[in-house]
Design a protein that fits this description.
The chain is of the alpha/beta class and 139 residues long. Helices cover 27% and strands 18% of the residues. The strands form 2 sheets. It has a 5-stranded parallel beta sheet with strand order 2-1-5-6-7, with helices on both faces. The protein has a two-stranded antiparallel ribbon with strand order 3-4. Helix 3 packs parallel to helix 4. It is globular, with a radius of gyration of 14 Å. It starts with 7 loop residues before the first helix and ends in an 11-residue tail after the last strand.
């Protein structure tokens, strides 16, 4: 997959198929981009699961926060990563241990990790880098 440009039908196919999204790196601060994106997706009917070790046990927008992906007690369709590029690989490695495995790894605007993308794609997952699901044409 060429991660410099995504066909509209690839992005649309993902956003029309996934139902449960774990957002890794969500901030509880209302002025942060991760909070905006989380709220937007929640309002669009996605089942959103916040993942932030510093907020574990609390809630963000009335959704229980988990410390890590493997703490989530239900299947996740997509892992949306709001962490700096150098922290993406361990998140993807953990996502690949989940059963069932998520269908999609999504890295937010400015976030790109080609090694993590190759690993996820080799395991059969779809990958999107440097895009926001709120405005997928950006980037």
């Amino acid at each position: 997959m060429n991660h410099d440009s995504y066909p509209d039908n690839y992005i649309r196919g993902i956003l029309n198929t996934v139902k449960t999204i774990a957002m890794v790196g969500i901030s509880p601060k209302e002025n942060r981009p991760s909070f905006f994106a989380f709220k937007y997706l929640l309002e669009r009917g996605y089942h959103m699961i916040p993942v932030n070790p510093g907020q574990a046990g609390k809630s963000i927008l009335n959704q229980a926060v988990y410390a890590k992906l493997s703490d989530i007690p239900e299947p996740v369709d997509m892992v949306d990563i709001f962490r700096a590029s150098e922290y993406v690989l361990p998140v993807v490695e953990e996502a690949l241990t989940l059963r069932p495995t998520p269908q999609v790894i999504w890295m937010q605007l400015t976030i790109r990790n080609d090694e993590a993308a190759r690993l996820a794609e080799a395991a059969g997952l779809k990958v999107v880098m440097d895009r926001c699901p709120k405005f997928p044409g950006w980037g």
